[in-house]
Specification:
285 residues; Spore Coat Polysaccharide Biosynthesis Protein SpsA, Chain A; 8-stranded mixed β-sheet; 11 helices; 12 strands
Length: 285
């Protein structure tokens, strides 16, 4: 068995998300042999994990589990990868719900194509909302309408995302060779000097930088001379310039989505105008 499927279970959210994931995992077949690894994080005491293990042990699902010392997802993913031995590893987050059969097989088949370095079920060309917010802050500075908080946000954006958020695979329902994943840099939030005053390693910002910052997972994969692909429910892989055609994230009705999460649900529940705003944020005009 050369593939591990790692499900991140964030303890403070309770068992509801785990139950929903397991229900979808049971109904929708992965299509490929793998071992399921439950990755617990966000715990304060080991006793908090007991209700989760009771649910898992009462099911017919074979699983292993790892307890991460990290609070957030990416640090936990690296911890899990370092403690596994499979050739390939796929990660799904706490909110994940599997929507279609053969979902893991499709991710794997696209990853093993020549020249491919990482495959995800969702991705985006940018984050235009983030870009527009930065430009708004710059405009405020020019008009002398600024605050310490705005200055801090501008500095963080300038050093981690400037001049714009680049195309990136989202770090949910993605698959990668474990050895390649462990070669990636999970860098400190820049500028480094700010880490002397704020523990950004203990914040979500560091994970967001890894997902769609200048030194993102996708940027590092491209830097290795490999391609990032987005795959849809039909098993078709798309290169960057065609990601929107996959119809999986914040466009159309997301009709080809393989695995849902809180962000895809946000779009699904949005009204028409909100959907337009989200589509613009992900893909531009």
């Amino acid at each position: 068995m050369n593939l591990a499927l790692v499900y991140l279970s964030y303890i403070p959210f309770g068992t509801e998300y785990l139950i929903s994931f397991l229900n979808s995992y049971t109904v929708k077949k992965a299509g490929i042999e793998h071992k399921l690894v439950i990755l617990f994080n966000g715990h304060q005491t080991y006793e908090e994990i007991d209700p989760f293990l009771e649910i898992l042990n009462s099911s017919d699902i074979k699983f292993e589990y790892i307890i991460s010392p990290h609070k957030f997802d990416i640090g936990s993913y690296f911890y899990a990868a370092a403690n596994l031995s499979t050739e390939y590893v796929a990660f799904v987050n706490t909110y994940s719900r599997i929507l279609h059969d053969n979902w893991l097989l499709y991710l794997y088949q696209n990853l093993t194509k020549t020249g491919v370095g990482c495959v995800s079920a969702t991705g985006s060309w940018s984050d235009y909302h983030h870009n527009d917010e930065y430009m708004s802050i710059i405009s405020d500075f020019r008009s002398l309408n600024f605050s310490i908080n705005k200055l801090k946000k501008a500095i963080l954006y300038r050093f981690n995302f400037f001049p714009f958020v680049k195309p990136h695979l989202r770090t949910n329902a993605f698959i990668i060779k474990r050895i390649i994943f462990l070669k990636l840099k999970f860098s400190l939030v820049k500028p480094i000097v700010l880490n002397w005053f704020t523990n950004y390693s203990g914040t979500k910002l560091k994970s967001l930088c890894f997902e769609h910052g200048n030194n993102s997972l996708t940027s590092q994969i491209i830097g290795m001379g490999l391609k990032p692909l987005l795959v849809n429910k039909l098993g078709k892989g798309y290169e960057i310039e065609r990601w929107r055609e996959a119809a999986t994230f914040w466009t159309s009705s997301q009709q080809n989505l393989l695995v849902s999460d809180n962000q895809t649900m946000k779009y699904e529940l949005a009204d028409k105008e909100q959907k337009k705003a989200l589509a613009y944020a992900a893909w531009g005009s």
